[in-house]
Amino acid sequence: MKLLSNSAIVTGGAQGIGLAVASRLMREGTSVLVFGRTETKVADAAERLNREAEGRARAVPFAGDVCRAEDVARAHAFATEQLGLPGILVNNAGSLSLTLLVDLPEEELDRVLAVNLKGPFLMLKTFARALIAEKRAGAVVNITSVCQEVVTEGFAHYSASKAALAQLSRSAALELGRHGIRVNVVAPGATLTPVAAAFIDEPSVRRELLARTPLGRAHGMPEDVARAVTFLCSEESSWVTGESLFVDGGSHLRGLHSYWDTLNPPR
């Protein structure tokens, strides 16, 4: 599969879906800036990716905060210096918690909105400006969630942030299409990542997920999401922009069950 660019930035790239995406892009010959919050984690991830790539592409680590404009600018400059002007951006960094609306602290709302919406906005703005200045095409994939469309108790703040990101993506696709920059969304369902493992492995949750997923698996794997992202970063999707691709085994068709009630049964 021929990707749109030889240089990419993947946020939240040190583990889970982000790591799988970086690995998949590198397998296709695209070098990746692995952007994450923790220096040791991004360094370890880059080392692992370079070992697996066996010279087909490079991974370089960058530690910073996607919610800080100065960190975003430094990350983009570093990627350009090390790998060439990035033509692929995958906004994967995210924040999730399970809290009922009436108990939700304002600080938690601010944190989730900052990571899930402000961060992708800052990354997208910086990425697009650089490509427009050089008259270069590009591809952006924003990772949302089935929660952009379906809701359940305890996820009001998370669902709102992901729905907002989906709409930001559609607006960006409209504005940036004239510059040859495509913007799409991949919306995963329950995916077995280090962050989600404890939740998904809870027997009661696992039973509910299995019962509600038409394709007969309780959860997806990071590689399932990575394959969809890679398609949207390739020339195979050159006529696709402003779309949301659900990677969830069809679970959004039945809607989400109440994770809150499952994890907090009446006494």
Automatic annotation (TrEMBL):
It holds the Pfam family adh_short_C2. One of its GO terms (molecular function) is oxidoreductase activity, acting on the CH-OH group of donors, NAD or NADP as acceptor. SMART domains: PKS_KR. Keywords: Oxidoreductase. The keyword DNA repair does not apply. PANTHER family: 3-OXOACYL-[ACYL-CARRIER-PROTEIN] REDUCTASE, SHORT-CHAIN DEHYDROGENASES/REDUCTASES FAMILY MEMBER. SUPFAM superfamilies: NAD(P)-binding Rossmann-fold domains (SSF51735). The keyword Oxidoreductase applies. It comes from the Bacteria. This is SDR family oxidoreductase. Residues 6-189 form the Ketoreductase domain. One of its GO terms (biological process) is fatty acid biosynthetic process. Coiled coil: none annotated. Belongs to the short-chain dehydrogenases/reductases (SDR) family.
